[in-house]
Automatic annotation (TrEMBL):
It comes from Bradyrhizobium iriomotense. This is Extensin. Residues 50-79, 284-295 have a biased composition (Basic and acidic residues). Pfam families: Extensin-like_C. Residues 91-267 form the Extensin-like C-terminal domain. Residues 38-88, 281-337 are annotated as: Disordered. InterPro entries: Extensin-like_C. It comes from the Bacteria.
Length: 337
């Protein structure tokens, strides 16, 4: 009886350990359903026990993340319209006061392409030390550094020059400032400094007495133009004028392009007054003149020479004289580099 009683008492204990007599791998999953009270099922489904461990962490993480994202978004949205005023003024901007120039800041320009610039101003006038203003006509869009350089040049060099003529400067004839284009308006060429708002083309200064100083005007005394030449070449890293190429016969290009080793370009041939150049028209070649090398070779080389000359006219020739034969090229000399 005892053994029987033990056998009966052990049977349920073993049944609890093993779901089924043949279930060697513990696959008797249905067993708990029968042993668990229905009341416990709803308590286990929500899984309150594992969640509390992770819950505080999960809740704590998104809490700071969400506000951070919202803050970023919130900061970005108002930043667009308020960017210019909120921007910290550059040292140049702070230095370019209304005592030096009337040059309000304008929004940055981005593109197209690599065109554009930051810290831009609209240079409307330069204020001379005696408080008189030199109007920039039309107002020039320039980087602050370039505008400042122009203002300093006019104030320190051009104003005394005008004073030596017994007058003061009233206007600066701005031929071109910011313009998104390649050098010399050649498509595909390197971006002009004009495209970076780092260049100004100056054609002339007008004086209060009505006189005009055309920087490339041959009727303006040569000495005067040379003084301007020395002035700008000391102040700007690039100066291109008559004789530099075929695009700067009627204005002076100034920019502050930075090159390796501070390399500078100063190419401005101050031509003699017209009366001395005009007689340099081609004259008939004297028969007794020694033969030219090209002409002496054969008749074919004459054609070659002419083609060569024609080719030269289409490409910038820094040492090309602007005298004879320039007339037909004039249409191409407007507002280049
Ligand atoms: Zn230019």
């Amino acid at each position: 009886m005892v053994t029987v009683a033990l056998g009966l008492s052990l049977a349920p204990a073993e049944a609890r350990k093993y779901a089924a007599p043949l279930d060697l791998f513990g696959f008797g999953l249905p067993r708990p359903r029968g042993t668990v009270h229905p009341a416990r099922i709803p308590a286990k489904i929500p899984l309150p026990r594992p969640r509390p461990e992770d819950a505080p962490k999960e809740v704590a993480k998104p809490a700071p993340e969400r506000p951070a994202v919202e803050e970023k978004l919130a900061a970005d949205k108002p930043a667009e319209p308020t960017a210019p005023p909120a921007k910290q003024a550059s040292a140049c901007r702070l230095a370019l006061t209304e005592e030096i120039a009337i040059a309000p800041s304008v929004p940055d320009i981005h593109g197209p392409g690599s065109c554009g610039g930051q810290d831009l101003v609209r240079l409307e006038a330069i204020v001379l030390p005696d408080k008189r203003k030199v109007q920039v006509k039309p107002a020039a869009i320039l980087r602050c550094g370039m505008a400042s350089a122009i203002a300093n040049w006019v104030r320190s060099d051009m104003a005394p020059l005008a004073a030596s003529l017994g007058s003061t400067i009233s206007d600066l004839d701005n031929f071109d400032s910011f313009e998104c284009r390649g050098r010399n308006r050649i498509v595909g060429a390197m971006l002009s400094e004009h495209g970076r708002a780092n260049a100004l083309d100056v054609r002339a200064f007008k004086l209060a007495n009505g006189q005009s100083i055309g920087l490339t005007d041959r009727t303006v005394p040569r000495e005067l133009r040379e003084r301007v030449l020395h002035s700008v070449c000391a102040r700007f890293s690039t100066v291109l004028g008559p004789g530099s190429d075929w695009y700067h016969e009627d204005h002076i290009h100034l920019d502050l392009m930075q090159r390796r080793n501070d390399y500078r370009i100063c190419q401005w041939n101050v031509w003699d007054p017209l009366p001395q150049v005009a007689p340099l028209l081609p004259t008939e070649r004297p028969e007794e003149a020694p033969p030219r090398e090209v002409a002496a070779k054969s008749g074919e080389t004459n054609e070659g020479a002419e083609q060569g000359d024609a080719a030269k006219s289409g490409t910038p020739q820094p040492d090309e004289p602007a005298g004879a034969g320039q007339t037909p090229r004039k249409p191409a000399t407007k507002k280049r580099r």
